[in-house]
Structures are given as C-alpha cells and as structure tokens.
Design brief:
Length: about 190
C-alpha cells in the first residue's frame, strides 16, 4: 500500500515516465523501500484508475512513444493525508527479516554454515553502505529539480538512517560470527 505513496511523493517533484520513476526510486528511496519496475507500473495504472495521477502520451519519432505521469490535486490530497496519518508508523515495528528467521532456526546447522550466511549478509550490508554513501554524497542534481530546498534536508535524514542501520547490521553480524567462532574454538558445535 505504501508503494503508491512513494510514487505520489516522487511525482510531487514533477512529471515523470514510469522508467524515470523507477530510476529515481532506486537512486533515492530504494535503500529503504524496495520496488520492482513491474510493481511501479502496476501501481501507476491503479493510481490513474483511482484518479490520483493523470498521464499523457508523448509521441516520439526516433524513440518509442512514452507515457508521462503527473500527480493531480486529488493525488496531492491523498498523499498529504498519508503523510499526516500517524498509524503508518506502527508498520515499522512489524517487519519480516529472512536472515533473522533463518538464524533463529539454525541450531541444526554446522556453525560454519551459519558463519558463511552471516558473512554474506555482512558483505551485502557493506555494499549497501557504500551505495547509499555514493548516491547521497552529492544531492545537488536532485535539489535542482525541486522548489522547496528543505526537501534535501529530509533526504539526508533518510540517508543517515540507511547508513547507520546498515552499519549496525554489520556490527551485529560480526558479533554473531565472533560468538559462533568462539563456540567452535571451545568445541561446542556438535554438528
């Protein structure tokens, strides 16, 4: 349900094609909200059907025609209601984490296998930290797209969350690896 508001939020900055929305999604909010291109196009169709966005077909001679989407007044009202709704924050604490689910049930595995899983997770988090830092180090090209220059202040806050949470995940994974390695040294793993 929140994907639609991510799309509406991006469209507040200006009209975009589905391709552009997908690109900006990945470059700006993709590190904390994942969406596939097909999901974005499905949601755009639903938003248009619900009269929150409007589209126009742009005819091109050299390239294929494209559809340009823009948020309308009703879409802006719905987006603002969503921003003001305090209930949405509750969803943050109801997460699904496959790494934690697997780890919870990993007593039947050799510690070596669990360590490998945690090391892969840690490496992925390190790559995410690098990616977020690269995407958010210079926001000037995005700042040029918006009228309200305070927007980038809030973009930087979400980037800070991404960096700090992934650094925390890295430390947590390393702590778990250290615990398992210590148990291995003690000969605790009977697998």
């Amino acid at each position: 349900m929140s994907l639609r508001f991510g799309i509406l939020g991006l469209l507040r900055y200006g009209k975009m094609t589905g391709y552009e929305i997908n690109k900006y999604f990945k470059e700006s909010i993709g590190y904390f909200w994942n969406a596939q291109q097909s999901q974005i196009y499905r949601e755009l169709a639903a938003l248009e059907k619900e009269a929150m966005v409007e589209s126009e077909l742009i005819y091109q001679t050299v390239k294929p025609n494209k559809k340009l989407y823009g948020i309308n007044e009703y879409g802006r009202e719905q987006f603002q209601k969503w921003l003001d709704d305090e209930k949405g924050i509750d969803g943050f604490f109801k997460n699904r984490n496959v790494v934690l689910l697997k780890l919870f049930f990993s007593a039947s595995l050799p510690h070596e296998n669990v360590i490998k899983m945690l090391e892969r997770f840690k490496k992925k988090c390190e790559l995410e930290v690098k990616e977020v830092a690269e995407h958010t180090s210079d926001l000037s090209s995005y700042e040029a797209l918006v009228e309200n220059k305070d927007e980038s202040l809030f973009w930087k806050m979400t980037a800070m969350y991404g960096l700090m949470s992934h650094k925390c995940f890295i430390q947590w994974a390393q702590n778990c690896i250290d615990i398992l390695k210590k148990k291995e040294e003690e000969g605790y793993n009977d697998q």
